[in-house]
Write a structure and sequence with these properties.
five-stranded antiparallel beta sheet, single chain, about 550 residues, mainly beta
């Protein structure tokens, strides 16, 4: 324990953190100790304490719970307990079994960048002690490279009751996070287990998106007007390597769902590397490549959604996860069909596939396709059509040289834009088109394959070569919006989002650019989906 009494010198983090390196000595009314327990959050001490695991109920048998739902994380070779992540911060809460009669909590606080914070102790709902650190006028940038420790003591005086809860609140600007390490319990009554915190409700339906507009920044939150989170969290993005990114969607952590990615503002292309829950946060991996297939820093838009809608709708998605299988049913956790049937995929030949969506029996709709994995393949939709009561979607995939290649991909079929909702009354404004006339200067795309929730026909225009603008009338700019594009046809062309903008109360225009396999502008067909966070008022 003496190591914690030294001033430790660490390199400055990529993102700053306020660490509560908590050596909490819990003193009780009796001087006769029955047990002394230390929690170091290491996997060797608790097999369930894997990095990334939610720690809320991991230590109930030791009389402690963490209702703020922190996670176990790795920090310079050791595991610690962290509250929040990236730009998503929140108070760290510890609750102790009342039968342990805690009278005093000692804590060592490390404030890397001298930001204001507070640590409070409560007996029931009554505050019995508080330690507040206030930034001095000379604090702040330039930040010192040394982590400064502050030892604090929180006490419940005679007649104030026992400490049952400690709340450590980070700076209000979310510049720093809270972390805990090495909790020590000393009790006169032995270890008294505490009841669990009720499980967080499962994420049944969700929708989120980001515009990743700063491709060389290590960590940032996209502008609020270009990100959305149906749970109210603030999404953020981490750049982990050249052309490699991780999108985080707080409060949407779940298994399953669907992800699509479109490159933005250049002739690079991007794909989804994977997606997974980390505690209560959903993570999405995105990789971007130059036309030659080399990793490159690039802007992109990313869309995540999870569905639970019923058979009144006609929508489906799947993750085609077995690229060389002749025919198979994709992973049931990562596919969905509003009619309740299981989607299937058939390999027609190298890099060419057919997806069957049973029960999707309506003509029209739109399709999005995104290549999946760490390498530089890309995929597109060839066409889709009805086959009795089913919808068939054909997909082609290519390597960076424009040659057919077997690879995984994600696919969505939409007859509407009601992603991640439960009832039709919850729909947001949006639309889609199949831009099927790549060399016509101005036209109205096929009415069966376009949608505008404002009930106006969308229009498309061509500005040679490979440059297009799609106008969504009456879909005015909202608080947040996004766009996804997929090239259409048999060849190896690909398309990107160039920009989108609009005039209030009039329209929104989404600009698209398309390229050949070597990155040169080309004319081609594409599908485009535009989404907003503005709810339709019925």
């Amino acid at each position: 324990m003496n190591n914690f009494l030294n001033i430790l010198k660490f390199p400055t983090y990529r993102w700053s953190s306020l660490i509560v390196g908590a050596i909490c000595t819990l003193l009780f009314s009796s001087h006769v100790l029955a047990a002394s327990v230390e929690i170091d959050f290491e996997l060797s001490s608790n097999p369930r304490a894997a990095s990334g695991a939610e720690a809320t109920n991991l230590y109930l048998n030791l009389g402690v719970r963490f209702p703020s739902r922190p996670t176990i994380e790795r920090d310079r070779g050791t595991q610690i307990l962290q509250q929040g992540s990236g730009l998503r911060c929140a108070p760290l809460i510890m609750e102790f079994s009342p039968e342990m009669a805690v009278r005093e909590v000692r804590m060592r606080v490390i404030n890397r960048h001298l930001r204001s914070y507070s640590v409070q102790a409560f007996a029931g709902s009554t505050e019995v002690d508080v330690d507040r650190f206030t930034t001095s006028p000379d604090s702040g940038p330039p930040f010192p490279p040394v982590i400064d420790f502050r030892d604090i003591v929180l006490r419940a005086e005679v007649g104030e009751g026992n400490i049952t809860r400690v709340v450590a609140t980070p700076p209000s600007d979310c510049f720093d996070l809270m972390m805990i390490d090495n909790l020590v319990f000393e009790t006169v009554r032995g270890i008294v287990p505490i009841a669990p915190v009720s499980a967080k409700p499962r994420v049944e339906r969700a929708k989120a998106w980001v515009w990743a507009s700063q491709p060389t920044i290590d960590e940032y939150a996209p502008p609020l007007s270009y990100q959305y989170n149906s749970a109210g969290g603030r999404n953020y993005i981490i750049r982990s390597a050249l052309g490699a990114y991780q999108v985080s969607l707080p409060e949407l952590g779940t298994t399953g769902g669907m992800v699509h990615v479109s490159a933005y503002g250049g002739n690079h292309y991007c794909k989804v590397k994977g997606w997974w829950p980390s505690g209560t946060t959903q993570r999405i991996g995105v990789n971007c490549f130059s036309p030659a297939g080399n990793p490159i820093d690039g802007r992109f838009t990313a869309l995540f959604y999870r569905e639970s809608r019923g058979e009144a709708w006609r929508d489906a998605f799947l993750w085609a996860d077995q690229p060389v299988a002749t025919e198979y049913t994709p992973n049931l956790r990562y596919q969905w069909n509003s009619r309740g049937f299981q989607n299937r995929v058939r390999r027609l030949s190298k890099g060419q596939y057919e997806a069957m969506l049973p029960g999707i029996d309506r003509i029209g709709g739109t399709v999005l396709v995104t290549a999946y994995g760490a390498d530089s393949e890309r995929c597109k939709v060839v066409e889709w059509d009805q086959s009795e009561n089913d919808t068939l979607v054909w997909v082609n995939c290519f390597d960076s040289n424009g040659k057919f290649v077997d690879t995984r991909y994600t696919l969505s079929y939409m007859k509407d834009v009601g992603l991640g909702i439960q009832y039709s009354e919850q729909q947001h404004y949006g639309g889609y088109v199949w831009a099927n006339q790549p060399t016509t200067p101005n036209y109205i795309p096929h009415e069966t394959y376009q949608l505008n929730t404002a009930a106006e026909p969308n229009t498309a225009s061509w500005n040679p070569t490979g440059s297009y603008a799609v106008r969504f009338p009456l879909l005015k700019p909202s608080n947040s919006s996004t766009a996804q594009v997929t090239a259409y046809g048999t060849g190896s062309e690909y398309c990107t989002i160039a920009s989108w903008n609009g005039r209030a109360g009039d329209y929104t225009s989404v600009n698209v650019k398309c390229y050949g396999s070597s990155g040169q502008p080309v004319n081609t067909q594409f599908t485009l989906t535009y989404l907003t966070d503005e709810q339709i008022l019925y």
